Amino acid sequence: MCGSHHPDRWMLCPQCDLMTEVPELAPGSKASCPRCDTTLAAAWVEPQRRPTGYALAALFMLLLANLFPFVNMHVAGLSSQISLWRIPQVMVSEDYSSLATLFILFVQAMPAVCMVGIVLLVNPVRLPQSLRRGMARVLFQLKNWGMAEIFLVGVLVSFVKLMAYGDIGIGTSFVPWCLFCVLQLRAFQCVDRRWLWQRIASPPPLPAEPVPAISGLRQGLRSCRCCTAVLPVDQTVCPRCGTAGHARRRHSLQWTMALLITAFMLYIPANLLPIMVTESLGSKTHSTIMAGVVLLWSDGSYPVALVIFIASIMVPSLKMLAIGWLCWDARSNGPTHHDSEKMHKIYEVVEFVGRWSMIDVFVIAVLSALVRMGRLMSIYPAIGALLFAIVVILTMFASMTFDPRLTWDRLREKSFEEPSIEGK
Predict the structure, then answer these.
(1) How far apart are the first and last CA of the chain?
(2) How many CB atoms lie within 10 A of CB 374?
(3) pLDDT for 129-162, tens place per residue?
(4) Angular region, 174: left φ>0, alpha ψ -120 to 50, beta rest
(5) What domains sit in the chain, N to C, each tagged with a CATH number?
(6) Any bridge partners for residue 372, and if so which?
(7) Which region, left, alpha or beta, applies to residue 267 given φ > 0 means left and ψ of -120 to 50 means alpha?
(8) Which end of the chain has fewer CB atoms surrounding its CB within 10 Å, N or C?
(9) Of 216, 225, 217, whose CA–CA distance to 245 is shortest?
(10) Angle at 216 between CA 131 and CA 122, to 5 degrees
(11) Can you tell me whether residue 195 is helix, strand or coil?
(12) What global pTM score does this model have?
């Protein structure tokens, strides 16, 4: 039968634009792009029940985590304890509503919305088709902005910082929060984008017979960045999901460089200005990011000092350098296949590690909420924390606006006939 009669079997790799025919997958296996090794589709065992169970369990753990005390501290006969909702309240009271908003959105709201979306989308819940499509469009866009597990690492770093001052203990909600972090990651992992969109709506007919192992751009075809449907290159709106798009992200390099330059301009004052203020016995100490690393190192907390240094100093710096290198490479002439593979690996690393730089911001959030003991000892956020959070967000947007297919466009297609299939 003609391949054009089976549009659900053809897919353009979202990373390198290679046309591939995806075979029938056995449960527990996945298909990867033969050129850049990006996962194209995955066939999960019980693809409906597993994400539903994980998502419902995650929501229940999130509810428990917000009902009880989270962590506590005892210093010189004084005690302090906080719940998760106490953290944004403290930041609002210190006139840092922006940081409180980021905490609520990234740590609680977005992961919770995603879990609800998974439950409603993978199950036959009666919803208007327009609502289902809208929820599916938003679901995978919010995935990278959920930072519950990053906040958990920030809490653990806070414990190490505070052990020198007093006794630190975990509250009733700490274990539920740890379980929530694991369960929400597992729920997302068990949802395949291609499988989900096939349940929501059928893909549109193929405009022409696809040629495997050739980029879509050279065949006059493009991929919908939301639902992976194969469309004519001049069709700007996907008929299945309603997402507007083009063969390549418009002005990708210009947007990426603009965001990158803005992030670099803010990165300098973010490192020079204090990120938190410590008040102890009437005296105030202003701490920068690097000063915190030096203090931890001098106290003998070498692993934690390395974590903060890598996440807050090295990762943002190397990420901005890597994004600039990607933009320069995309504008250069005549890359080899090896060069494109190397740049693709760099892009994947940039995509993965970028949001982990928020660890230091979450450390400050925990310290500011927990250490409230009057003139004996109190910690407050400072302007550097907000600037650093903005830098992280801008670099995340910069990596999102960069189109990785630009690094593959000038290559001559080789023989990439079959996608690689692996068991999970």
Answers:
(1) 30
(2) 8
(3) 999 999 999 998 888 899 999 999 989 888 887 8
(4) alpha
(5) 250-411 (1.20.140)
(6) 378
(7) alpha
(8) N
(9) 225
(10) 25
(11) helix
(12) 0.87
